[in-house]
## 1
Amino acid sequence: MKSFLVFVFSVAFCVSTTIAAPPSYKVLSRIKIGGAGRWDYVYVDSANHRLYVSHNTTTEVIDTTTDKVVGTIPDTNGVHGIAVANDLGRGFTSDGMDNDVTIFDLKTLKVLGKVKTGTNPDAIIYEPSSHRVLTFNGRSNDSTVFDAKTGEVYAASIPVGGKPEFAQVDGKGHVYFNIEDKGEIGEIDAKSAALTKHYSIAPCEDPSGLAINPKTSYLYSVCGNKMMAVSDPAAGKVIATPAIGQGPDGVAFDDGYAFSANGRDGTITMVGETSPGKFEPVATITTQNSARTIGSDQKAHKLYLPAAEFGPPPAPPAGGGRAGRAQAIPDSFMIIVVGRG
């Protein structure tokens, strides 16, 4: 009888810990925007069905129910990222060429003001528990913290010990960000506006995009050496390094999976927890070369990737040397929409 009970318990345990097969994703459509072929991050506001797209000197706004451009926020020169504070009715863009943040009204898209930052603000994020906005300034290697309601600057420059990249919040006041040139994760306490932690995510090199699992607070960093570093910020350590494609700059989280946008390969690597504590690639989704950043609508289970068509690279100089970079084909800028098939 004892052996039988052990057998039944073992079977029940195996069934209860079986992880479901991953959902299938594919390209559903492409949203034509046109204009210059320069962009960086996108931000998905699921609550209001809007997608904000950084696009050279402007920020495009798309209605995700119709996939139509419904507005533009002008004079966001060299815009990198977008943050949204739905509880305050405000949005924010990091304007890398002007070293400032544009504050805008979410309903009207009217510009409400500007806040000066460090040099070349790149990632930007809203921390809801403190009602503060943080920018991560790529050339001055620091973070600027200001009040989302008033624009009052709490900290003009928090040195972060390297070149900061994308950031995430855990909803409890902690702001995490990649440090690209050091292969580290940094942590800022939003309320005290102070750097509180650094930890290594080696063997990850050149981490750029960052996503967070809102349930576990695990962080997913995409790295230049074709891996994703899954780390536990509470413990300050890497727990997995699944393989991804080449040229990632963004990663998104949706329904238990992390999605690396591999711009050089023109693919997305979908990473899941295949057994407790084990993270592996579970699918490769074909997108398009240059689709290197990504945002997720975690309600609709859709992914949005900016991209453009590129011509062939120019021939090398007659006297030798490296060929120049391929240039974007005029008016080919678009958003690739990926969802469940």
Note: Helices lie at 2-17.
## 2
Amino acid sequence: MELGLQDRVALVMGASRGIGRAIAAALAREGARVAIASRSEEKLEEAAAEIGPAARPFAADAANLERLAALPGEVEAALGPVEVLVLNTGGPPFGGALDHGLDEWESAYRSLVLAPRVLAGAVVPGMRERGWGRIVNVGSSSTREPLPGLNLSNSHRMAAVGFLKTLATEIAADGVTVNTVATGRFATERLATADGSLEPAEAAARSEVPAARLGRPEEYGDLVAFLCSERAAYLTGAVIPLDGGLLRSAF
């Protein structure tokens, strides 16, 4: 399927590893020129080498809002205006409803809500002017069904979806789509950290996930590439589960 991404300029946040790297690789395979951003310069260089010449690394910490505001301009100077934005800022610390101090609440809000707002604010005017743009948010299934021990993610990812849904309705007529992927259990370093290794997570998935396995980051990249494509022009404002059937709710 021709996705119409040849020579499109994409900015993928959190692209040094895991799901972000897989998304960047998928976009590069479709012919996009991909700016990959992360706070780890060393891992960014590794990711760029793996993805190939279509990838250009840009060091940026999602907690530094001033840096994020300037990032799209740097990408434009190097590659051209950002036409595809992938919001992927990682997950906050694990814990229950009252386990975190207000400083941790504020930090999670900064990375999960304010960072997407800053990046969207920097790229959306240009997208609207050009009449084309794609924004995809790497979210969580917790926006549909809150997860035990992930209070900060449960709380702030819902706020991000509220913002992005509002944005989607305001800019749909300008040819710009905004969608969120409700992420299930994927074989990533974060999941390995939560369970000590991937082995317990894989064992749990065999019995708890209808697909009987963890998701592969490459599968995530393929979905996002489609959402960023010409073919997905009528799909916007959606929260799309990618979880092997784990969510129990029908809507």
Note: The first strand starts at residue 9 and ends at 13.
## 3
Amino acid sequence: MEDWVTIVNKSGFAKHGELVNFLKDKHGFTHGNANTVVHFAKQSHAGAAENDTDWIAEQYKGKENLKPWYDKIMVDINKFGNDIEVSPKKAYVSLRRKKQFAIIQPSTKDRLDIGLNIKGVAPSGSVIAAGSWNAMCTHRIKVEDEKTINKDLINWIKQSYDQAG
């Protein structure tokens, strides 16, 4: 990891996306691995010694009305098992098991987006294809109303969790 961090830091690129593309294009990284290396290089990963920022609190500044929704969703997610790694990033919270299975992102003042990784399952109902919204997710759920936080939403997240095991 130290060697890749050095390569990233000497690349001449500054923006996260540029660095990810650099690793993918020039070194054949997958998106997820490139993203991880860049987070380490920029010391923006959750465990960084220099990173004493409470990313979750930062994410909900100006969007405080959405924080109870996040908390409510997390109560249900934490019932799935004790093997969930909650990894806050600058813009979203990554939920991992053996691999990332979901992200929760306060996208606007009125909407949470939940990204899921579910291979081989067609989106339906309120679940849509993630498309270009986030390359690390296959499915997306827009939570624009607290009523959306229901058993169906949690079942979709649980399906993603199960697949990541």
Note: The two ends are 25 Å apart (CA to CA).
